[in-house]
Structures are given as C-alpha cells and as structure tokens.
TrEMBL record:
The lineage of its organism: Bacteria, Pseudomonadati, Pseudomonadota, Gammaproteobacteria, Enterobacterales. This is Pyridoxine/pyridoxamine 5'-phosphate oxidase. Pathway: Cofactor metabolism; pyridoxal 5'-phosphate salvage; pyridoxal 5'-phosphate from pyridoxamine 5'-phosphate: step 1/1; Cofactor metabolism; pyridoxal 5'-phosphate salvage; pyridoxal 5'-phosphate from pyridoxine 5'-phosphate: step 1/1. It comes from the Bacteria. It is an enzyme of class 1 (oxidoreductase). Keywords: Flavoprotein, FMN, Oxidoreductase, Pyridoxine biosynthesis.
Length: 217
C-alpha cells in the first residue's frame, strides 16, 4: 500500500449518532441488558447477530481469535459448540480464560464478556447436536477442525462419503465434538457517541452482586 492509500485509510471515519448509553439505561444484572441488546440486534436484521469473536491464548501467551455462534445463554453462562480437537478447544484445555466479543457495528454497539470456559456435560451436547440440520451433523464428522489438509476436494469428498453412509439413519454424536459454557465475571457495554465521546460501562462480579463503573472512552 502506498503513502496516498495509507493517508486515505487514515482519513476514513464517521460520526456515531445513534444515541448514548446512560446509567439510567442500565440493568442491575448485565445479562438483562445483554438480552435487550441482542433482541434489538435481531430486530434490526443484522447479519449473524449471535456471532461473537472468541479469544483464547496458547501456551506461549499468543492470542487467537475466531468467530463462533452463541447458541444459548442464561444466568449460568454463554454456550457455544465446537470440535474438541480444534485449536480453541485445545487452548482452553490448558488455559480456560476466555473473552467473547459481540461486534454490533450497525447499531454502534459492542459487548465484551470475560470469564472462564467450562466443558458442557454430554446430555447438553447430545441434545444440541441432534437439533442441528443433518448436513451440519455430517459436516462435524467430515472435518478434523484445525488440522492441515492439502485441498478442499478432500473435505468435500469426505462429506459426500459420510452423507451416503448416514442417508437412511441417524447421525451419531462424534466422540470429539462438544461445547463450552463461559462463566463470566466481567461484562463491558460500549455505545458509540458523538465526537468520539463513547459510552462505556463495565460490570464486575462481586460477592453481593455486580459493581458497575463508567469507563472513559
């Protein structure tokens, strides 16, 4: 990229004008505000409103990020599913600290959860796995997630082979497939504001409830 292109890139900006976030807008429990914002993201017809960036670290402290879909949430935590041989699952097995980031840019909003990831019990995993479309179940068998493959055709060939195998029967749960519940202890809500005076509030779990603080943008 040349100097002119870099200057054009640096000049890209816009104002955030959709409104602010005030303390009066907050709920006592962060999950209630998250539920409200998620509902509004769905009602706004955002693409993949449940998409979240999942951040983990490896044994050297190197961070990794990827987009995963939120599949359930309640007072116990936020749930997602994955191949347990995947990079993220392997990293969480050694360091279960995790960050979840919801980038609802069209609404000028972001939410970030910090906490620890706990493996789901087999009953929860089986129930969700069999609720997925059959092709998605087969795809879980076809992909050894994060492993190196020489060509896409290998993956597609394996999928077609398994689709033929399971065409007349139920797809069993792979032994290597599971999920995590993120038990969170910190939640930050970000709402864009005019003149870059964004609104940020952080909830931090304490023994008797949630402490709420406003953060400078």
């Amino acid at each position: 990229m040349n100097e002119v292109q870099n200057q054009e890139l640096a000049a890209l900006r816009r104002e955030y004008t959709r409104g602010g976030l005030r303390r009066a807008d907050l709920t006592a429990d962060p999950l209630d505000l998250f539920e409200r914002w998620l509902k509004q993201a769905c009602e706004a017809n955002l693409s993949d409103p449940t998409a979240m960036c999942v951040a983990t670290v490896d044994e050297t402290g190197q961070p990794y990020q990827r987009i995963v879909l939120l599949k359930h949430f309640d007072e116990k935590g936020l749930v997602f599913y994955t191949n347990m041989g995947s990079r993220k699952a392997q990293q969480l097995g050694k360091n279960n600290k995790i960050s979840l980031h919801f980038p609802w840019y069209p609404l000028e909003r972001q939410v970030n959860f910090l906490g620890v990831a706990e493996r789901l019990n087999p009953i929860e995993v089986v129930k969700y796995f069999h609720s997925r479309p059959k092709d998605s179940q087969i795809a879980a068998w076809a992909s050894q997630q994060s492993s190196r493959i020489s060509a896409r055709s290998i993956l597609e060939g394996k999928f077609l082979e398994l689709k033929q195998k399971f065409q007349n029967g139920e797809v069993p749960l792979p032994s290597f497939w599971g999920g995590f519940r993120v038990v969170f202890n910190s939640v930050e809500f970000w709402q864009g504001g005019a003149n870059r005076l964004h609104d940020r509030f952080i909830y931090q779990r304490e023994e008797d409830g949630w402490k709420i603080d406003r953060l400078a943008p």
